[in-house]
């Protein structure tokens, strides 16, 4: 499922885009914003895979907005102006839709996003390690070694089974979450991602990994319970 964000200052354009998204089963609407400023906190808090973004908006244009993000998700520009297309593709946007957008053209763009999304996921699942900047160098971190990841504003701590001292790197939780293969790691709190394999036990609103108690927030509890239900061997779950 591709989590989408709509950013456009025209309510009618937002309504049409939302209607198109709801007709495509692999797209999920995570939010809609009437300007780029509204989108910034949502992008920091939620896992957004794809932005449908207008260009001409008051305060901050779509192009200025994209340039401000070092680790941006997939972007599809949706604009009434054709003259920005070349500049948009210079920013590595996935596609450029000119208003009014037919559903056929929108679907073609969505399928392009799906192909790219699946390619990223496949690449992430092939590798069993990631590289992060720490101590003025690139440090290789084996995924099997990760116990859990703790977010601290603009930094994260990667807690490992092989050493007591965590690796500290300047990243946000959204970026590191998108770098990890799905199915092996689970976001359980705005400040915590855990390795599924390393979970020792689950106690109400706490997860235990070795001797470390990690809180589970209400926003992520449903996903955790869904995971537990799939893995549970209790009678009635099969």
Task: Map the helices and strands.
Elements: E1 2-7, H1 11-22, E2 27-33, H2 36-45, E3 50-53, H3 62-67, E4 74-79, H4 85-90, E5 95-98, H5 103-126, E6 129-134, E7 137-142, E8 146-152, E9 155-160, E10 167-169, H6 173-179, E11 185-189, E12 192-195, E13 201-203, E14 206-209, E15 212-215, H7 218-231
Parallel strand pairs: 1-2, 1-3, 3-4, 4-5
Antiparallel strand pairs: 6-7, 8-9, 8-12, 9-10, 11-12, 13-14, 14-15
* Shape type: elongated
Which CATH-level-2 architecture of the largest domain?
3-Layer(aba) Sandwich
- Which blocks of ≥5 consecutive residues have pLDDT under 50? 233-238
Within the largest sheet, what's the order of strands? 2-1-3-4-5
Indicate the structural class.
Answer: alpha/beta
Number of helices: 7
Helix and strand sequence: EHEHEHEHEHEEEEEHEEEEEH
Fraction in beta strands: 25-35%
Provide the residue-averaged pLDDT: 87
Number of domains: 2
Query: Which value, in Å, is the CA radius of gyration?
Result: 20 Å
The number of distinct β-strands equals 15
From the N-terminal CA to the C-terminal CA, the straight-line distance is: 25 Å
Helix content: 25-40%
Q: Any idea what the CATH superfamily of the largest domain is called?
A: Response regulator
CATH uppermost class of the largest domain:
Alpha Beta
According to CATH, the fold-level topology of the largest domain is: Rossmann fold
Major β-sheet annotation: 5 strands, parallel
Description of the structure:
There is one protein chain. The chain is an alpha/beta fold. It has two domains: 2-125, Response regulator (Rossmann fold); 130-231, LytTr DNA-binding domain (OB fold (Dihydrolipoamide Acetyltransferase, E2P), Beta Barrel). Helices cover 33% and strands 32% of the residues. The protein has helices at residues 11-22, 36-45, 62-67, 85-90, 103-126, 173-179, 218-231, and strands at 2-7, 27-33, 50-53, 74-79, 95-98, 129-134, 137-142, 146-152, 155-160, 167-169, 185-189, 192-195, 201-203, 206-209, 212-215. It has a five-stranded parallel sheet. A five-stranded antiparallel sheet has the order 10-9-8-12-11. It has a three-stranded antiparallel sheet with strand order 13-14-15, with no helix packed on it. A hairpin with a 6-residue loop joins strand 9 (155-160) and strand 10 (167-169). The longest helix has 24 residues, at 103-126. The protein starts with a strand and ends in a 7-residue tail after the last helix.
């Amino acid at each position: 499922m591709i989590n989408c964000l709509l950013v456009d200052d025209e309510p009618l354009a937002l309504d049409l885009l939302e209607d198109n998204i709801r007709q495509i089963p692999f797209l999920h609407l995570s939010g809609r914003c009437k300007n780029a400023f509204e989108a910034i906190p949502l992008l920091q808090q939620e896992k957004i895979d794809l932005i449908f973004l207008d260009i001409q908006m008051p305060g901050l244009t779509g192009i200025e907005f994209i340039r401000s993000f070092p680790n941006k998700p997939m972007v599809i520009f949706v604009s009434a102006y054709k003259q920005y297309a070349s500049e948009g593709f210079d920013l590595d946007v996935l596609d450029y839709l000119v208003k009014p957008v037919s559903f056929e053209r929108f679907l073609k763009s969505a399928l392009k996003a799906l192909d790219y999304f699946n390619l990223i996921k496949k690449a992430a699942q092939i590798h069993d390690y990631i590289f992060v900047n720490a101590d003025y160098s690139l440090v290789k971190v084996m995924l099997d070694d990760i116990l859990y990841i703790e977010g601290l504003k603009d930094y994260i701590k990667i807690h490992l089974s092989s050493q007591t001292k965590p690796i500290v790197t300047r990243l946000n939780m959204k970026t590191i979450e998108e770098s990890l293969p799905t199915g092996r790691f689970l976001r359980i709190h705005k400040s915590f991602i855990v390795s599924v394999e390393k979970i020792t036990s689950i106690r109400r609103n706490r997860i235990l990994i070795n001797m470390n108690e990690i809180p589970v927030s209400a926003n992520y509890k449903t996903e955790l319970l869904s995971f537990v239900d799939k893995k549970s061997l209790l009678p009635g779950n099969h």
